[in-house]
Specification:
Number of domains: 2
Number of helices: 3
Order of helices and strands: EEEEEEEEEEHEEHEEEHEEEE
CATH class of the largest domain: Mainly Beta
Pfam family, one: MOSC
CATH architecture of the largest domain: Beta Barrel
Shape: globular
Protein name: MOSC domain-containing protein
Radius of gyration: 18 Å
CATH topology of the largest domain: M1 Pyruvate Kinase, Domain 3
Largest sheet: 9 strands, mixed
Strand content: 35-45%
InterPro entries: MoCF_Sase_C, MOCOS_middle, Pyrv_Knase-like_insert_dom_sf
Distance between the termini: 34 Å
CATH superfamily of the largest domain: PK beta-barrel domain-like
Number of strands: 19
GO molecular function: catalytic activity; molybdenum ion binding; pyridoxal phosphate binding
Length: about 280
């Protein structure tokens, strides 16, 4: 197996981009989801689940911060804000503080998204813990949904597309990996083999596979148009439905941070369980 793609998302729920290499930090890839859009009133995370057009807004890292683009507006350079200007924010069950990016960034994004929002930066990524049911006490995560990295398999995507064509016909549009927003994509494994992995090595980085990824409505939003449809949920519901959810991908936690991984790196499974159990998921 080898590492086929590395994808990074500087701002949670905005458009991401592919890179050739990235440093693995304890809370995720360097530069991944360290920024977040929040509601201007409550400080709760605003995501593409409810504001689909977020997927059409770009965010590229710069030496001093990020560059926002798209939404028929002039691009905006945003510097990393002063850590002294903290806001209380919420992402899922996590309550923490983050640095306010400032009024110019807030106004740009509010216009782009059609609602009053603010932009924040996680200046100290040690503030947010992962779910203790599936990880360790000292594990940390940035503004990703729950865990530092998400892995997906090219073979598993091919299996989804095969099932999709079987149901919808050979002319059905191909479903792309972009919909699933992984950080790392591996190729050379059997479809769904990642369900069974518990520890793996990507290049020089060792990572724990702690939980399968239950997929939400966000995967049904076309990342090119921002329009919502029924796929891939309709297909996943036929072939990957467990415990009332549909599953694609595996959440990872780094055990050897500050290692740089590169496209083409060897991927080796260091520990696995017997096949057939399905993805790691909450017990009831």
């Amino acid at each position: 197996m080898r590492l086929a793609e590395i994808r990074r998302y500087p701002v949670k729920s905005l458009r991401g981009h592919r890179v050739h290499e990235a440093r693995v930090e304890p809370w995720g890839l360097a530069g991944d989801r360290r920024w977040m859009v929040v509601d201007a009133g409550e400080g709760t995370a605003v995501t593409a689940r409810e504001v689909n057009r977020m997927l059409l807004v770009g965010a590229e890292p710069t030496p001093t911060g990020i560059r926002l683009s798209g939404a028929d507006q002039e691009p905006l350079e945003v510097a990393e804000p002063d850590p002294a200007r903290q806001l209380r924010v919420q992402v899922w069950s996590s309550h923490l503080s983050a640095a306010a990016a400032g009024s110019e960034a807030d106004a740009w994004l509010s216009q782009a998204l059609g609602r009053p929002v603010r932009l924040v930066h996680l200046d100290d990524p040690t503030r947010r813990t992962t779910d203790p049911r599936f990880s360790r006490e000292d594990d940390r995560v940035s503004f990703a949904d729950g865990y530092p990295l998400l892995l997906a398999s090219a073979s598993s995507l091919a299996a989804v597309n095969a099932a999709h064509r079987e149901r919808a016909g050979e002319d059905a549009p191909r479903l792309t990996m972009t919909r699933f927003r992984p950080n790392v994509v591996v190729e050379g494994a059997e479809a769904w083999a990642e369900d069974d992995w518990r520890v793996l090595r990507i290049g020089g980085a060792v990572l724990r596979a702690v939980k399968g990824c239950a997929r939400c409505v966000m995967t049904t939003v076309d990342p090119k148009t921002g329009e919502r449809g029924k796929e891939p949920t309709a297909t996943l519901a036929r072939i990957r439905r467990f415990d009332g959810a549909t599953w694609f991908g595996v959440n990872l936690v780094p055990d050897t941070p500050d290692v740089t991984i590169r496209v083409g790196d060897e991927v080796e499974v260091l520990d696995a369980v017997e096949p057939g159990a399905g993805p790691v998921r909450p017990t009831r």
